[in-house]
Design a protein that fits this description.
The chain is α+β, with helices and mostly antiparallel strands. It is built from 7 helices and 17 strands. Strands 6, 7, 8, 9, 10, 11, 12, 13 and 17 form a 9-stranded mixed beta sheet that branches. Strands 1-5-3-4-2 form a 5-stranded antiparallel beta sheet, covered by helices on one side. It has a 3-stranded antiparallel beta sheet with strand order 14-15-16, with no helix packed on it. The structure holds 2-acetamido-2-deoxy-beta-D-glucopyranose (NAG). The site of 2-acetamido-2-deoxy-beta-D-glucopyranose has 5 residues, from strand 12. It comes from Porites evermanni.
Length: about 325
């Protein structure tokens, strides 16, 4: 059976190359082969191959294989989970190697055999196909799972971490999916009540290396959208530290950017956030495991972000606390 596939594949490669004037040596290689280069640190398997064409064949018939390096001296064919596009820093010169890309490869994130490490990783690899479900395996555990990626908002690459949505009038009565394990929480993107605790969020930061958090809240009764993302700089990084591993309340102003649809009063007034001090994230009485949802941003006695996922969930409180309407949405993403 493998021999048959090999014949068909070689036929296909020849058929596409015959019309060009390429050198004979290039006939059995992919379009994206590069002599004198290799990708280091992402190989999962090594096989013997007589020649570069055989290495190309081995890679293109292994569903995990994104690219391979053929070493001319040792005739070793090293197969990689990544490509030079997804890991440019690891694409290096090597005079006795040829880098080959699998032209038949499954897009990263599209199958459980080719998981990304995060939504951002899939986006950077050029394999994003709109908002939706993707496979990831942040810890390279060999046990991937499916998550929801927002690949369009503010440049895309956002992994949905937590949310509460009023899908029906009784949504607030649904049981919460809550855990300290991101593996448990992230695949529950269809649940309208998923909450990841601080320790799990911290573990996730270690494994995926996310550098930004995005908060989205909409509450119909107040008619405002609160939509911000932390900046990808030192001030934004302090906010990530607060939500993963420290009780020091970081500065609010200068730590985030408002997104195009944000029309909230809260995001306008970062100078009023915080307790006991102004211009800070969080509230000193709410530094628990739940801080990502429990008053991450508070304007004392005026407005607060709080998505507890029960009747008390609220945003932009203006005397009318608590009441929920269909479509009210609280979401947290990272990238
Ligand atoms: C804020 O934006 C939302 C969503 O676009 C819209 O429904 C709402 O009317 C806006 N509110 C104000 C006060 O402009």
């Amino acid at each position: 059976m493998p021999m048959l596939w090999e014949s068909i594949l070689i036929f296909m490669v020849h058929a596409t190359a015959v019309s060009s004037d390429q050198h004979r040596n290039e006939l059995c290689k992919g379009n994206r082969d590069e002599f004198g280069f290799t990708l280091v640190g992402h190989d999962y398997k090594s096989s013997y191959a007589d020649n570069v064409g055989r290495c190309f064949f081995l890679c293109s018939t292994d569903e995990r294989c994104q690219s391979a390096t053929f070493f001319w001296n040792t005739k070793e064919c090293k197969m990689n989970r990544e490509t030079k596009a997804s890991r440019p820093a690891d694409f290096v010169k090597n005079p006795s190697a040829t880098y080959i890309e699998n032209d038949f490869r499954a897009k990263k994130g599209s199958t459980s055999s080719t998981p990304g490490s995060s939504c951002k990783d899939i986006l950077i690899s050029g394999d994003a196909q709109g908002d939706g479900k993707y496979w990831i395996d942040p810890a390279i555990s060999g046990d991937p799972f499916m998550v929801f990626c927002d690949m369009t908002t503010a440049g895309g690459g956002w992994l949905l971490v937590s949310r509460f949505v009023m899908k029906t009038h009784d949504s607030f009565l649904d049981s919460r999916v809550e855990s300290n394990s991101y593996r448990t929480i992230l695949p529950n993107f269809n649940s309208n009540k998923q909450f990841l605790f601080t320790n799990g969020f911290s573990q996730m930061k270690q494994d995926t290396g996310f550098t930004q958090i995005r908060f989205y809240c909409f509450k119909k009764t107040t008619g405002r959208v609160f939509h911000i993302m932390t900046n990808n700089d030192a001030k934004g990084s302090d906010v990530l530290t607060f939500f993963t591993s420290s009780d020091n309340q970081p500065a609010a102003c200068g730590s985030f950017t408002r997104l195009a649809d944000d029309n909230s009063t809260l995001a306008e007034r970062c100078d009023r956030w915080g307790f006991p001090n102004y211009n800070t994230w969080g509230h000193t009485s709410h530094l628990s495991d739940l801080r990502l949802f429990d008053k991450p941003a508070v304007w004392r006695n005026t407005i607060r972000v709080w998505f507890a996922g029960d009747a008390a969930a609220e945003y932009d409180r203006d005397g009318d606390a608590g009441s929920l309407s269909l479509g009210d949405t609280w979401q947290v993403f990272v990238r």
